[in-house]
Amino acid sequence: xxxxxxxxxxxxxxxxxxxxxxxxxxxxxxxxxxxxxxxxxxxxxxxxxxxxxxxxxxxxxxxxxxxxxxxxxxxxxxxxxxxxxxxxxxxxxxxxxxxxxxxxxxxxxxxxxxxxxxxxxxxxxxxxxxxxxxxxxxxxxxxxxxxxxxxxxxxxxxxxxxxxxxxxxxxxxxxxxxxxxxxxxxxxxxxxxxxxxxxxxxxxxxxxxxxxxxxxxxxxxxxxxxxxxxxxxxxxxxxxxxxxxxxxxxxxxxxxxxxxxxxxxxxxxxxxxxxxxxxxxxxxxxxxxxxxxxxxxxxxxxxxxxxxxxxxxxxxxxxxxxxxxxxxxxxxxxxxxxxxxxxxxxxxxxxxxxxxxxxxxxxxxxxxxxxxxxxxxxxxxxxxxxxxxxxxxxxxxxxxxxxxxxxxxxxxxxxxxxxxxxxxxxxxxxxxxxxxxxxxxxxxxxxxxxxxxxxxxxxxxxxxxxxxxxxxxxxxxxxxxxxxxxxxxxxxxxxxxxxxxxxxxxxxxxxxxxxxxxxxxxxxxxxxxxxxxxxxxxxxxxxxxxxxxxxxxxxxxxxxxxxxxxxxxxxxxxxxxxxxxxxxxxxxxxxxxxxxxxxxxxxxxxxxxxxxxxxxxxxxxxxxxxxxxxxxxxxxxxxxxxxxxxxxxxxxxxxxxxxxxxxxxxxxxxxxxxxxxxxxxxxxxxxxxxxxxxxxxxxxxxxxxxxxxxxxxxxxxxxxxxxxxxxxxxxxxxxxxxxxxxxxxxxxxxxxxxxxxxxxxxxxxxxxxxxxxxxxxxxxxxxxxxxxxxxxxxxxxxxxxxxxxxxxxxxxxxxxxxxxxxxxxxxxxxxxxxxxxxxxxxxxxxxxxxxxxxxxxxxxxxxxxxxxxxxxxxxxxxxxxxxxxxxxxxxxxxxxxxxxxxxxxxxxxxxxxxxxxxxxxxxxxxxxxxxxxxxxxxxxxxxxxxxxxxxxxxxxxxxxxxxxxxxxxxxxxxxxxxxxxxxxxxxxxxxxxxxxxxxxxxxxxxxxxxxxxxxxxxxxxxxxxxxxxxxxxxxxxxxxxxxxxxxxxxxxxxxxxxxxxxxxxxxxxxxxxxxxxxxxxxxxxxxxxxxxxxxxxxxxxxxxxxxxxxxxxxxxxxxxxxxxxxxxxxxxxxxxxxxxxxxxxxxxxxxxxxxxxxxxxxxxxxxxxxxxxxxxxxxxxxxxxxxxxxxxxxxxxxxxxxxxxxxxxxxxxxxxxxxxxxxxxxxxxxxxxxxxxxxxxxxxxxxxxxxxxxxxxxxxxxxxxxxxxxxxxxxxxxxxxxxxxxxxxxxxxxxxxxxxxxxxxxxxxxxxxxxxxxxxxxxxxxxxxxxxxxxxxxxxxxxxxxxxxxxxxxxxxxxxxxxxxxxxxxxxxxxxxxxxxxxxxxxxxxxxxxxxxxxxxxxxxxxxxxxxxxxxxxxxxxxxxxxxxxxxxxxxxxxxxxxxxxxxxxxxxxxxxxxxxxxxxxxxxxxxxxxxxxxxxxxxxxxxxx
Length: 1490
Fold this sequence. Notes:
Structural class: mainly alpha
């Protein structure tokens, strides 16, 4: 069939010309329905008509007919209109615009679009006006819209896509929603019609896909033949479609971009799409690099894993395998283009790299993908361009935007994983450093470790740790250079200067207006020079500082750096560096504690033979078995198990060459030696392990095999822990070991104690003969009194275990027999010493101590054998030779002396060590005898107060705290006496008292009553920093968790107590002795810093609810008490109020939302759930704070304003702190204050005036400090000069929004020191007011006939002073004194003449002075009065310029007249303003066209 016959299948001649003309006139934007009969005839045979027409037209496009025949001439000869053919094709193309189009309609659209592309391909199509940009774009859209899922997935994608951080930056106000296009509106209406959606089978989808594939081939055949250079919009649209098709379906394998392109061999749509992009890069589709620029701009979002439609914001895609694969293909395509086009494409390629940096999503995974893509593409740059880009990247890394600085670190780390580039000859010498890895590490990474943003600091530190983990020669060498101080880099003006301490990252991005199209252009980043700091000590100090950073992630990253530095021996292991890591095991954050455990364990595994590392590991890890977090307990147990227990083998298999075995026994040796105090934590660990059946019989046997080796001490220590939970011991081995110890005299005390402990654990499993033999041996040891005290305690405990039986009577009988013998021996020996007059003169102190100690241990087990005689013996040993006279003013002294049981004895001459142990024994006796305890507790309290011996005071504290557990009611009244030891002169006593009181408070044997809380928190300012840190730990981690409201309940009373203020009816009323007051006093200005430290510590651990509540309570219970007159205002009250206002203005009392900076509320976290939780918490806090702000202002402002007036009248120095607080409050609560003052404009004017005065005073004080070396002008006031107002010097500007602004002459004179000097030489100007005179100048309060506002009074006072000054000037002029002219000091000022009796006086700046209308500006001759207002007449030229000078004149109403209504203050509510704006911006609803 020929061409004309084939065209008849499309019924071209049957199409009405009117319909064709209408389609063309509407420019293919709208369609008129085609006659359904014509459409039916065309579609009667399906797609056959389109296929046959395509087959007939194809030879004309491929030029098989040659130049001898043209299809257009044949159309003309056959009267076939090409316009009608195009209109008919458009009719079928637009069918796909309907989402509910059937499969057949979609196929018609695809074939019609293919025919249109074929017509364009035929030579002469342009001359015959076949091309139309709208139709061309719609045919391109057919590639996308014909696929069902694409058309229906827009709504779903918006729900499922990950939100891009670039489109909604953190910390900014939410903008107005973007205007929705018609497709989005249509989707909403289509939601209710989902049941009518057309569903497609797999076969249907396959047919549509084949149609898209064929159409795309047609397009690719068209592009080499049909130039689009003059059609930029069509090129842009074609790029968009092709980019979307690159992600249409997965590609099996990799797309080959290198070989010759053969469309017929391509089998996937992405392959065809990339080939189309390559064709568009041809010069025939754009001049220069325009098309390449467009291609790179579009492909940018594929690399960043975003979906960017035409004119829409990019939407972040989930990082699925399909999306990641498409990204990889895009990177390979860009690399191929760069390889092919080489230098011509490098400028655009550089822009692409910059835009990857600028537009990457600020999420961890996407930053990693972006950095990897950037590094892969950078490998295509020559060395010169590579160095230039690294230079740009450095400036980018110092951008003001935090995400930019973070991404720069990710890129630097990705670059470090690549081989270092070698510079070629083309690279300038000054840019060689940019090719080196050392630049990336020393400058880019390390330079961000002190960034002001915690996110950047954390990422930089973790990157530095990763550099060490790379273990490459260049990375380790660069860090070593950095720490050795040899890496100080300086670059010329064209380069850069680096600083690791740069913390402001002040570089900002500026986009130069390049001659480029669209937004895809060069990004210029400004640079700023820094100082070079590369001292090793400063670097280590910085890392230690980061390890204690306020942000959790920064501390965690700093630990990683320290671990890597120490693990790879970049720096030596010093106690300071190890303690930095070790201390983080007590960090408040769980993640930091976990990191510290991991870091110490890694370091121990790297250096198992380092003794310092072993000690640090034990000190850091072992106590964590008692951590409150279960996960940390488990981690610590795992570390202990894998490090110690797991490597305990039989001695036959032991070898010193096995580092793990040797490490395990070294650690056990430490625990049994220098680190014995850590064994208490191991008891908890072994208790948990025993429940898990960790200790098998083979493990026990392995331990026993080491008991007779060099590891015997450690083995016995471990057996003592294990024996209590494991009955699988070899008892014969234990008995044999005891026999050896009992025969030898050189066995260590610790080993003996451990063996006795094991015997006690296995006693119940021994037979009676063995028990009797062991009891005999132990009694023989005890009766010899040669053993150390620790062995005596262990022996008595073992004796107790050996004597236990099922019958309680038998057990008591055994104890009375054996322990009674020990008590009798001790009684006999001590009686000989005490009762003998010369017994104390020649005693063996060690032996006496052993008898006393043994007596106490034995007496605990046989109280029935302890007679009263023994009580008297111990008391006589304790009798003090201290003068027990009551001190003056001590209310409890008589009571203590009346109950003193030792007063009946003669003063003892026993050595201190004997008396110290005697107190311990007395405490043990009191535990078994309540009557003795009643008598001794007052004596112990008195001894604690008067004794000078440190050891005795220490033991008395221990005894009293132990007695408090047994006799809580008895000891409770003496808790204040114990608490006084918190101020003992010996640090060890203070520490012991702090620990003992914490234990009692934890177990609730002691309550927070009376002064105890204030005594406890006063330790926060202890002169010993270790004790202060211990008190912080006890308060926060042990006591606050049990009582979360503890701090807030006592906070207000803290202010009264630490200021020693006792005039309030409620606070600070608990009983105190004068000695207590003197010891714990923090009164006065010298202790203000200590008081503030306590306040801030307490506030720092408040919740937001408690902060808000305490602020309200302070205003109502403290400030309101002074306002209401319940508490007098005096000097003591001034210190109290000063502290109160300092507390109110401190950052610790502010709500968390007001304390955090914008953009720092949410810390980025890789865990999406954690991040979502953080965002929710921030939103809740913001909502709460808005409500609380309003309530706060309504409650506090009235009290503050009233108290301010009282302080001004009483001249209380605390007014300065009040003004500071008021200044701070007006910054934090600006909107709320404006709303509050809307109803009281007079008060607002006064407050604003006073704040202006206070600001001027602060500025003057700063100037005076800066000019302290300058000669000060004479400040003496002239005779008759009035005193300044108590509210402040009136020489200030009064400014009220929408009101009047005035300035007195004194202000102008005081504004410049030169002017002041000139005035003192001639005209006696108003003297400069000292800073203290602003609020405290002694001037009596003068009653006024009518109440005037502060601003009115100040202006009147100013007018009087200026008039008085001018009178003095005139009188001096009359007497013949001619003042020196001062015009040279202010050449720009106009001279004002002072005329009187022919004399003239020049005054500088007089014309610029704002004055009251009743204030004369010169000597006057004629005065007129009019309507109660004095008016100064002007003459000459000045009268003609009155309109200009009147703006500097204030008109004042006579005080006798009623005041005018107050001026409206120009303050609007933000709510009403927003409503007004919304009303103005609301658009008129659309009306129907008809």
